[in-house]
Amino acid sequence: MNKPVQPSSAVTTEHCFTLSGISKSFPGVKALSDVSLALYPGQVTALIGENGAGKSTLVKILTGIYQPDAGEISVNGTPVVLSTAQEAFKLGIAAIHQETVLFDDLTVGENIYLGHAPRNKVGLLDLKAMHGAARVVLDKMHASHIDTYARLRDLGIANKHLVAVARAMSIDSKIVVMDEPTAALSAKEIGELYELIEFLKSEGKAILFISHKFDEIYRIADRYTVFRDGALVGAGLLRDTTQNEIIKLMVGRPVDHIFPSRKANIGMSVLSVSELSHPTEFEDISFELHKGEILGFYGLVGAGRSEVMHALFGITKTSGGKISLEGVPLKITSPAEAINAGIVYVPEERGRQGVVIGLPIFMNVSLPSLDRTSKSNVLRLKEEFDLARTYTERLDLRASSLSQDVGTLSGGNQQKIVIAKWLATSPKVIILDEPTKGIDIGSKAAVHEFMAELVAEGLSVIMVSSELPEVLGMADRIVVMRSGKIEEIFENKNLSPETLVKAAAGILQ
Asked: Could you give the residue ranges of the DSSP H alpha helices within 94-220?
């Protein structure tokens, strides 16, 4: 069944769901301004836009979490009010997010029928009927391998997505929202998700698909809607529109050069790693990082790249090997020791590991530098703001103020906060683990430009990335890992994507 999802050949013009003239404001921010969206049965509509364009706000309005300040919502031509998430669910609107929002401690069957489980004659939950109904839904979706009695926490991300879809199917949802559903999936799991989308289309579901990956969008979507700065700037059939035209709509300008042109000025060795090993994750890792260099780390899922970075930053303990910085041997047993030595780490999971949700921007930026913003153990607010302003301005942060809760920022702006807080420590080496994962093309370009500026100033960068164009476009040298070992180290001169993939798969000849 591993065939690609094909856009519908006969594209209907009869929409089943519309948002018209929708506006939404927050203190200091106009999130949406007079936008519209139409969804069609049996079709996928891609919602495209840079981080901060208003996509997440629209999804929250669509699912009843936010209420619009103005505009109308209609289902099958009838105006409706989505006053709560439960109300939206009852009207047949279901959402599948990048990170599932179901309940890990409940069973699969309980998650599928939570809030609308079958009951017996005396009004008690009919567990047998519930699991039986859940079994029918999963079988219909070709997900017979999932046990309805299994705890959700015991399932992988791909199967959790299937459970979320089964929940939507259990109420015969007409509209399914998929918000970055492939971000944490392997290539095989992404293929299975495409099959699931094909199934949903065959069932006549209207699908809203949000992704930053154009290969996914063009593979599965029939229509597109583009937002920019909270406004609708384009919509239509994908088959009539090129990728460059959509990018121009997104950013308001053509993007001819995604990666900045730069002349590398590589100096002496800064970081030396020799025969670094871990009992279970990696072994015999040896490489050099030079001043003013971007050293790329590439590999397939499970290659051990992030695990090596965790060891360099003191998150995990090694079983052997040597690390030296500027010729001085280091024994790093904690992140604090790494930071004090001049090594900082921007993690892949910025939402859980990079920022502190609930704290304002300025506190997030100043958190590792409190010794610079305090006197006699008393924090000085002005120094905190000055420090945060210096580095967020360099990264062109988009926020209403430095007092804004970092949790309300887009993914791209959160990434800028994480980079800013570590740059404020004046490091010698910065490790960027998947620095542009889940952010839009405009924010990616900003991060790439800033990386080029950092190495031009003499900082040394390790960039872990699963995106071939990013590795080839940014790195001076590329370390390819496979199964916890370094397979090859390449000079990035006339290097082809095929060569990297073959090395990562262990078939380089």
From this structure: 108-112, 127-140, 157-170, 187-202, 214-220
